[in-house]
Amino acid sequence: MTIVEGTIVALIVALALAIVVIKMVKPFGKAKGTCRACGTTCSCEKAHK
Amino acid sequence: MLTVPDARNRTPIVALVGNPNSGKTSIFNALTGARQKIGNYPGVTVEKVSGTFQVGDSTIECVDVPGLYSMTAVSADEAVAAAVIETIGQETSPDVLVAVLDASNLERNLFFYSQIAESGIPIVVVLTMTDVLEKEGKTLDLSALEKRLGTGTTSVVAHKNSGVAELKEAIDLALKERPAPELEIGYPEIVTRAVNEIQIEFPHLSDKSVRRALLLDSQDGLTAEESAAIDRARKALLGESAQGKTIDAQARYAWAGSVCRETVKTVRQVTKTATERLDWFFTHRFFGLLAFIVVMYLVFQSIYTLAEPLMGWIESGIEWTKGIVGPIFDSTPTLQSLILDGVIGGIGAVLVFLPQICILFFFIAVLEGTGYLGRAAFLMDRLLGWCGLNGRAFIPLLSSFACAVPGIMAARVMPDAKSRLATIMVAPLMSCSARLPVYVLLIGAFIEPKYGATWAGFALFLMHFVGLFVAIPVMLILNKGILKGKRLPFTLELPRYQSPRWKDVGISVYTRGRMFLQTAGTIIFAMSILIWALLYFPRSDAAFDSYRADYSRLSVVQQGQFSEENYVAQRQLRDSYLGKFGRAIEPVFVPAGFDWRLTTGILAAFPAREVVIPALGIIFSLGGDVDEGSSDLRKALEGAKWPDGRPLMTPWNAVSMMVFFALCCQCMATLATIRRETNSWKWPTAAFVYMTALAYLAAALITWVGGLLS
Hints:
The structure holds 2 protein chains of 2 kinds. Chain A is mainly α.
């Protein structure tokens, strides 16, 4: 394997790893407008804060 | 593009409100050009959705909310809708309410209208289902109706785009003139007298707010002194009983009834509607269940048989692509392997299952569109009621057959928190579309060749019900034990039967297919590359030399069993990072009938179960067990063996693996949604642990029974 080929492969694998990590972590983020107290997407968030 | 600012200097907001299944989302889509999901049953929309539309040069924000029968919200989805209407004066409160009224169920719809009319927000009334009203031999006196409702009306047939322009104009007018309707609801004399007496003491209070406080116990905006006076008046009026809500409801229904008598005219008598005639059969306690089983069986049989030729074409296309791309990277073998096995192989393995996904969603959309799903919920009420839930849970559970994420969110239709939690906990057991590729692969490899296409279709049908069967005892344990408590009764409005709207069916299939490719495709693409890397490395010339030396030391008989090339490839795979990890953990999964390769595939699929197919594709196409020249994963699985020469996969092992996938919680998005909906880590953790344990035990049991019988 040449240095160029190795670098390309390493970059692609690193990018894939980053995508997997982001995809796995992202769903656990707080959705916009979602109430932390009751879970529903409604304006009750203010009341429950 | 100009935006019309209101007093709060922001884009005007219009909220679509009305009873469930009155056609709000159809109008939302017609106004905004959005593609929100539409279904002919109540409870399709469970959260607030926003979009925009233009009237002239002005932009207006449109909000679609879940349906409400009354402003007294019971379930979480109803709370979402009620909150939108009740946020008067806040930054996000609507400037105009578009009240969507089902003309064929006017009296019940008017009850809700009578409540929102008191919000003080300008209202535009939209009449839907006017064509159904005509079929029932009735007409509407629109001018009389407008007079009684205190606002203008417009009729819309959203799927024909008829009346949408008029509705936009009516909204624009309401935004400019802001007329709030005034209704004349006749309350009993004693209530009116009590209201007047309180107003003498507190003249600044409106009769509406006093009546709300008196009958509905609403203390909003009242001082302690006012509350105390109203409380005394309530006790004098009603005693200690809580009859205020009943008096209020009776007055409103009396008003709605009088409006209907005045405005709905019968022009011809219709004895029995088509819906009534069909319902005799489809909701019959015996024929209805039989029809349900037959319908479901036909759906899954069709998925299996109709998709086969399409899959063949896609497979050929993938092989053709590999043939074109491969030679470009001849001088760089590592990169060539990455592109062919990691990227094209991985994506192709998902693409090949797109036909089944689309066919499944086509049938679901057709059943939704006809109104049959409401009947299915009615039929399931007995079964679910026995487990402590009710038929209302069928809708989130059915949504979970497509994907657990919307299914878990649809559990908001459950009327109480404990039922909702129990539904959320079993929703991931329903067989989502990501499991379909696993079933198709294993049934195609081990059931169809031995028993034929009919039994293969039947096996696919059964696999989709494994989760439901297991969910019954789980629900029973949850509802009778951990989540024990009082349950609210089940009420579900059965929608009218109608011909499915083919445009909505097309949108549903397109949206779901695209979502499958986008969400699954991205992670599969990335995971395929990672799995390839973990199987390809470490590799060195020294290691290859030692494998070749080991091969030369084998006996002639052993060398006759496999070529040097296959032996070296197999050794390299075993010594790869993933191979070492798989072999280390293999003893845990051997009782379930999985060797290190299947174990590795299963572990790789824990973030998202659809990853298992490309993972197995990479693992088996690199393995020495695969026939040379064969890129077919089915053939590779059929030919795979344990180290002692026994076949790795028997029909029993195939069933064991399918059941493992049917029951295991291999979906990060599902766990994240449970976390979000329950606002706790406890429930996603519990779901993961109990489902994974169930999956392992069931797979081990099937393998053990299979070993005894074969």
